[in-house]
Amino acid sequence: MKFKSTSYMSGFGNDFETEALKDALPKGQNSPQKCAYGLYAEQLSGTPFTAPRGKNERSWCYRIRPSVKHTNRFQKIQMPFWKSAPHVLEDVISLGQYRWDPVKIDEKTNFITGVRTMTTAGDVNTQVGMAAHVYIANNDMIDEYFYSADSEILVVPQEGKIRFLTEMGVIDVEPQEIVIIPRGLLFKVEIVEGPARGFICENYGAKFDLPNRGPIGANCLANARDFKTPVASYEDKSNPSEVIVKWCGQFHRTKIDHSPLDIVAWHGNYAPCKYDLRNFSPVGALLFDHPDPSIFTVLTAPSGFEGTANIDFVLFRDRWSVAENTFRPPWYHKNIMSELMGNIHGIYDAKPEGFMPGGMSLHNMMLPHGPDMEAFEKATHAKLTPQKMEQTMSFMFETRFPQHLTYFAAKDPSLQDDYIDCWASLKKNFSDKI
Fold this sequence. Notes:
single chain, 2 domains, mainly beta, about 5% helix
């Protein structure tokens, strides 16, 4: 077994090469007649073969055994709490404003069995939309491995530290960091410090990319150099193991006689990565008015319609508020995007009460939402000196599709039945006299 401690290469979307054994990478060609060390060459493609050069994503992997080697046919298994779109339930109402307390970690689970789907959007079979999940985990995955053929997986830890042991290397991730696992890549998860809880955005569509900065120019927001890709590591173990595959919303299991984490070397631009959210450099108004929240976009997954995302991953972190004569929290609004928010830590300025770390809220497309009465009164009468928002970090999974609640989301005790009451005390201030 030759797993290295975690170490990384920098850059989002770069073409990397890395080897755990000297000269394991072939020189000058991808698939030589004979690979060094008796390895097999295997390509993992994340785009069609004929995708344009700037969008073509693939990695060549040099592994101990081809991944096609397994000892029996796939068998369907059930993951009762993990749902995929379309998942529209007649007796569940998704039209409304919803908020949840943190989901409790009160049973024995690992990263995969602990997934609890909150919402689904789009259609996994036509590769559009997403699903939003919570994960709760207090046990390692032992001789059990997983990959999703359906989706790219964005993981946002909120509590505890976890370790992703992937085919391409090892990634440790903690709260205020994220990890992105490409479609088709095998991994298992160990608990470094637990129990662990966090959020998952399962992206069915085009993969996440850095947003165009437009008039902002070349700097700020998330920088490509801060995304870290693991160096090659491998496991050479011959012991009974299981591989679980998510495919078209269904789950299947097959048995293998070895660890599938046996890639000794790889090169390419299709790989997992991590990013420290504390490196995100927000931008904002320097004089007056409140820009759209799109200025806080960390990653975006395009839809094919210019300016309309399949998913945006948006971050609200520590920052200065300096705008004059401006209502500084998010204004009251309804729009075509469906917004699922999660609180990683601290207090969110538009909801000073009730939106707890580990909690979530959902405001679906064309449903009005905005600050509660306390936030409105405070922001309306505050002395507008420069103020720094500190010890706060929330995020949003935003999609152009309506997000439909699952039974778990609609029935779990973490659902706050009284959330809508936070607007009940809003009063009429109108007068026809200035």
